[in-house]
C-alpha cells in the first residue's frame, strides 16, 4: 500500500511541479528563450573566435614565406615557363600580381594548379583565400585587368627540390611580408581569454532568469512540502526538468549560434559593412558535440548550483558585512596578484578573483550608495527613487553584473583590437620602411652599390637608402641556453629611413650615437630576457671577436620570439659571417627604374630580386583587417545579447512591481510624472552600471597588453584608451534604461501582481 502511494505520488509530482508553467507560460518561455540566447551567445562567439583563428591562419598563409621558381638567366617569367615546368612534372602554381590603374593591388591565383601542393605535402600549402578581390581573384580575371604593372611568379611546393627542375631554372625564396610570428599568437591568446569571459556572462544571464522562476514557485514548493513531498524529491525532479529543458533548447541554440556566426562571417555580414568597412570571412566547420556538452554543463551549474549552496549555507553562514569584507580582500588580492604574478596561470587566477569579487561588490556598493543618498535627501520622491534603486539592484543582481562584465569586455576588446591594428601598422612600417627592397645577388659586392648610391645621393632629390647586413652573434653571458644566439641587423649608413622607429627607452640622440658606432640597440625581447636597459653593456661575439657594447636604446619588435641587436655595419669585424645582404631604397623623383638599371649593370646581372614594399604592406594590411573585423563582430554580438537579456529581465521584474508603482498614482501623482520617475530610475540603474564597468574594462585592457603578452611572448603592447568609445558605451547603456522605462510605462496601465525576488528564493521584499 505504501509503495503504491509512493508510486502515485511520484507520478503526480511532475504534473504538480509543471502546473506552475501552465499558470505562468511566459515564465517557461522566458527560461527557454534565455537558455536559447545564452547558448546562441556562447556558440556564436566561440564560432566567431574559430573564424578569427582560421582567418588569421589564412592571413599568415597568404603572406608566409614560400619558394618560387626563377629563370637562371634572370629574365621575367612567362606562361610558357609554367607550361614547361608542369610538363617536366614540377608542382608549380602561377601567382600574378597586378596593380590596376585605379584601386588596390590584386593577386591572381589558379586554385586548380595548386592542387598538387596538398597531394605532395600532405597538407594544403596554397593560399586558401576567397577569390573576392580582397586581394585574391581568379588568375584569368587578373590577366584581363588594365594595369599599370603586373608580374608573374611561379610558386613551387615545399616538396620541390632543385634537382627536380629542368635546366635553366632554380629555386628562390618568395615572401610577400615579414613573418607575423607571435603577433598573431598573442592576438589569439587574448581572444581565448575573452571567450572564457563570454561563457561566464552567458551563465550569469541564464542564472538570473532561473532564480526568478524559482522565486515565483516558492509557494508551490511550500504546498508540496505540506502534502509530504520531501525536498530531495523536489530537487531531483528539478534536476530532471532543467536537463530536459536544456536538451530541448541547447541543440537549436547551438544551431542558431553557428548560423548567426556564419551569417556575420559571410553574406549576412554585409549588414556590418557600414560599421567595419570590410567583409568578414566565412567560418570553418565545427563539431556539435563540444558546444552542446559545454552548454549543458553551464546550464546545470548555473541553474542548480544553488542546491549545493543551500545545503552548505547552514555551515557557511556569513553575515553581509563579512561577505563584503571578504569580497574586498579578494579584490585587493586579485589586483596585487595580477601586478606581481610570475606566470600566466597566476594572471588568469588573478583575473578570476577580480571579476568574482567585483561581481560581488558592485550590487552591494550601488545599494549602499543609494541608501546613503536616500537618507540625505529631503524630497520624498527622491528618497523613494533611491530606496527603490536599492531593491532593483538586489533583485536584478545577476543581469546587472552580466551587463557590467559585458561592457567591460567590450571596452577591453575594442582597445585591444585598435591597439593591435595600430601596432601592426607600426610594425609593418618598421620592417618595410623603404619603398623598395633589393636583394644583393650571390657573389655581388654590396659595397660597390653602396659607393654608387652615396655618389648619387647629392644629385638625386629625395633618394634615401641603407645597406642591411643580417647574421647571428653569440651571447656568452646569456641567462638561458636557448638565448645564446641572437640575430644581428647591421645598417650602413644609419639612414633617416629608420630614425622614425619608436623606442621604448633610449639615450639622448640615440640615432646619432648609433651612427657614430658608440653602441647598439636591442629589441624588447632581448632586453626582458637578459634584464638589460639603456646604459648597460651587452656582451657579444661577432664572428670571432668578443666585445662589450653599451645599449643605446630598446625598440619594440612585434611578432618574433628571438632577440635582435641593431648596430652600425661599420663596426662589424671582417670575420662576421653575413647570412644575407640587401639594399633598402626610397628612390625619390627619378623613380626606381634608373636605379635598377644601374645596379644590374654594376653587378653584371640581367634581373634583380626587387620587392615593392608599398604593395606588400597593402596586401598584409588587407588580409589581417579581416581578423580584426571578426573580433569586433564578436564583441558586438556579446553586447547585444547581454543588453537583450537585461531588457527581458528588467521588463519581467518591473512588471512584478507594477503594484508598488501604481501606489504613486493612488497617492495623487499623475501618470506622466510616475513615468518620469521610472525613467530616471532606469537611467540611473543602467548608467551607474556603465560607470562601474569603465574601470573594470580599463584594468582588463591593462592585464591583456601589459601582463599577458610579456609573460607569454616577452614583449608588451602600448596601453591606449579611447574616451570617444566610452561615450558610445554610455549612450548604449542609457538607451537600455530608456527601453526599460518605456516598457514599464505600458505595464502601469495593466493589473499588477504580487512582487517576487529574483535574487533570494526564500526571502520577500517589503
TrEMBL record:
<dbReference type="InterPro" id="IPR038766">
    <property type="entry name" value="Membrane_comp_ABC_pdt"/>
</dbReference>
<feature type="transmembrane region" description="Helical">
    <location>
        <begin position="681"/>
        <end position="705"/>
    </location>
</feature>
<protein>
    <submittedName>
        <fullName>ABC transporter permease</fullName>
    </submittedName>
</protein>
<keyword id="KW-1133">Transmembrane helix</keyword>
<feature type="transmembrane region" description="Helical">
    <location>
        <begin position="725"/>
        <end position="744"/>
    </location>
</feature>
<feature type="transmembrane region" description="Helical">
    <location>
        <begin position="26"/>
        <end position="45"/>
    </location>
</feature>
<keyword id="KW-1003">Cell membrane</keyword>
<dbReference type="GO" id="GO:0005886">
    <property type="term" value="C:plasma membrane"/>
</dbReference>
<feature type="transmembrane region" description="Helical">
    <location>
        <begin position="322"/>
        <end position="340"/>
    </location>
</feature>
<feature type="domain" description="ABC3 transporter permease C-terminal">
    <location>
        <begin position="194"/>
        <end position="305"/>
    </location>
</feature>
<keyword id="KW-0472">Membrane</keyword>
<feature type="transmembrane region" description="Helical">
    <location>
        <begin position="236"/>
        <end position="256"/>
    </location>
</feature>
<feature type="transmembrane region" description="Helical">
    <location>
        <begin position="193"/>
        <end position="215"/>
    </location>
</feature>
<feature type="transmembrane region" description="Helical">
    <location>
        <begin position="636"/>
        <end position="660"/>
    </location>
</feature>
<feature type="transmembrane region" description="Helical">
    <location>
        <begin position="392"/>
        <end position="417"/>
    </location>
</feature>
<dbReference type="Pfam" id="PF02687">
    <property type="entry name" value="FtsX"/>
</dbReference>
<feature type="transmembrane region" description="Helical">
    <location>
        <begin position="288"/>
        <end position="310"/>
    </location>
</feature>
<feature type="transmembrane region" description="Helical">
    <location>
        <begin position="346"/>
        <end position="371"/>
    </location>
</feature>
<feature type="domain" description="ABC3 transporter permease C-terminal">
    <location>
        <begin position="634"/>
        <end position="750"/>
    </location>
</feature>
<keyword id="KW-0812">Transmembrane</keyword>
<dbReference type="InterPro" id="IPR003838">
    <property type="entry name" value="ABC3_permease_C"/>
</dbReference>
